Amino acid sequence: MWTSPHTPRRTGYRSVPLPDGVETYGVWGLSLPSLRRRLFRCVSIRENTDGTFAITAVQHVPEKEAIVDNGARFEPQSGSLNSVIPPAVQHLTVEVSAADGQYLAQAKWDTPRVVKGVRFSLRLTSGKGTDARLVTTAITADTEHRFSGLPLGEYTLTVRAINSYGQQGEPATTTFRIAAPAAPSRIELTPGYFQITATPHLAVYDPTVQFEFWFSEKRIADIRQG
């Protein structure tokens, strides 16, 4: 979306095959009598969940430079003794839980100091490397946030502080995985008086894992059939 001095308007682009002589990622130019050069100043870039980007820009007006050259002056505002630089995010953790048949991820963090008006920008992606894709983004004034309805997969969460001027602090990043728990490495059977105790053991202890037991007088070949 391009923001001009008058009315904002959207500009769309259509993908067409490369013409002869133009290579992928090559440098090329286009000259047409109907085209004229225009300058824009990028204000913000927002990544969408479908892999596209929304760019907000302000059109450059050469007449403004002439106004300054002819004597207009802009006095800078006085500085403040109090720092407004956004603090760095630290101690970022994510706790995964399950409720009502869906997975929840509760993210928590803190900052070394408190700055008035600071918000936090959260960016959650799934996958790795070139397969990484944006899942969702969020803005919050709290130091915690909950993501719900997440499918199985590996996720990367990035959190950074933003002040009222749009300045951003140092981000913090953490990864977490939502996956089915591993099968028990062994099952210990302890006989008792008219009873038997089955104790499953995991190769890596996970306090969030629970176990379900199926038993029968006959060997269960497929637990999905019962």
UniProtKB/TrEMBL annotation:
**What InterPro entries does this protein's entry cite?**
FN3-1_GpJ, FN3_dom, FN3_sf, GpJ_Ig_second, Ig-like_fold, Viral_Tip_Attach_Protein
Q: Which residues form the Tip attachment protein J Fn3-1 domain?
A: 78-181
Q: Where is the Tip attachment protein J second Ig-like domain?
A: 183-224
UniProt-recorded name of the protein: Phage Host Specificity Protein
Q: Which organism is it from?
A: Escherichia coli O25b:H4
Taxonomic lineage of the native organism: Bacteria, Pseudomonadati, Pseudomonadota, Gammaproteobacteria, Enterobacterales
